[in-house]
Amino acid sequence: MARASSVKNKLFVLDTNVLMHDPTSIYRFQEHDIFVPMATLEELDHNKKGMSEVARNARQASRFLDEIVSESELAIEQGIPLATHSHKSATGRLFLQTTAVQGELPNTLPSSKVDNQILGLVLHLQRLQPKRQVILVSKDINMRIKARALGVAAEDYFNDKVLEDTDLLYAGVRELSADFWDKHGKGMESWQNAGHTYYRIKGPLCNSMLINEFLFQENEKPFYAIVKEVKGNTAVLETVKEYGHQKNAVWGVTARNREQNFALNVLMNPDIDFVTLLGQAGTGKTLLTLAAGLMQTLELKLYSEIIMTRVTVPVGEDIGFLPGTEEEKMTPWMGALEDNLDVLNKTDDEAGDWGRAATQDLIRSRIKVKSLNFMRGRTFLNKYLIIDEAQNLTPKQMKTLITRAGPGTKVVCLGNISQIDTPYLTEGSSGLTYVVDRFKGWEHNGHITLQRGERSRLADYAAEAL
């Protein structure tokens, strides 16, 4: 059994779901030791078959364990050092269960259940090493509740969380204080270029500004700008284009509020290759994205076609035995696309029914609906790629998708992180949170969190009252 290498070092006992959620979790416990129960190895073996994300992770976790154990000269009971395999990021040891354990569990817990076997093992380790902290790590809430009821320390696995609190997530928008110009306006330079006004300002806030962050100040003369350049305590701001005005309508759609206006500014900017839009239902994410896509594909000819994909929850499973082509199988998931195209098609009043029908056929021919399951190995050239419901993607799936983008492709991720349907993802570990955090401040990235619902007074009231 595991012997205490140091009282300071904790001993973490890993539940199977931690390894299946993140196979690299073995290397994420720094100087602490980890213990893998036999029941965990059994469950990894049961879950290794198939093409789902869980099965892939189970196989990868087994490979990591095999690599560590097979290359070690030491006996497993002494613990195998992890430092060489983790490039010294983990300096603890790995212990595997080598003997059968009769943990003293209450009679109400059947010992045939894997969860209870692991709990029995943790209790046994606690008795063996009373001076050391033995902690169960599990993604299963009920398992953690049971553990605490038995007096066992239990924790969730947080390492893949981008943020502890999603309130800290970058919003892409910042309100300027009333005294902003007093502090930053001294020696300000201003010039105009291609219909935009630029300001070079100096002051304490410039340090914390990010490129492509939107700034606003609401007063008699509202000020809306985007940060174009940051050097130390100097920044260059550019005024934004007003998409709320009918003359700047995008495929007949105008911005109804400040954030929608900012969103259209990044969606219509060809220099911005990656856009993330977060927001509750009804804030206009899909409508704005599609309108900008149609305008740039059909009128401005910047992109050859629009590709729309979304996570079919259950994620990564087969899209089923529905009849038809890939596109037809995806139709049930694409209600949002149909609804928004109906709105966009009504914007052209002068065309009449025939004109509208022709436009509809043209739009249909330029929008392709693809399944996520067949994205590996593809490269998209000059495409406008929309990833809808992106909050249900893991960071790894997100990477797979975004790296499909070839030259001239723009990727737009839409989602609402408070509506996650995948069992093991939380707001903090969703792929959408991950990319928003990692891409902020890159000069070709734009991000906006849309605040106000614009569906109807009924939808707005329901969002608040329910």
UniProtKB/TrEMBL annotation:
Protein name according to UniProt: PhoH-like ATPase
Pfam families in alphabetical order: PhoH, PIN_4
PIN domain mapped to chain residues: 10-145
Signal peptide (from-to): none
Family: Belongs to the PhoH family.
Domain of life: Bacteria
Species per Swiss-Prot/TrEMBL record: Sulfurirhabdus autotrophica
GO cellular component: cytosol
GO molecular function: ATP binding
Record's keyword terms, sorted: ATP-binding, Nucleotide-binding
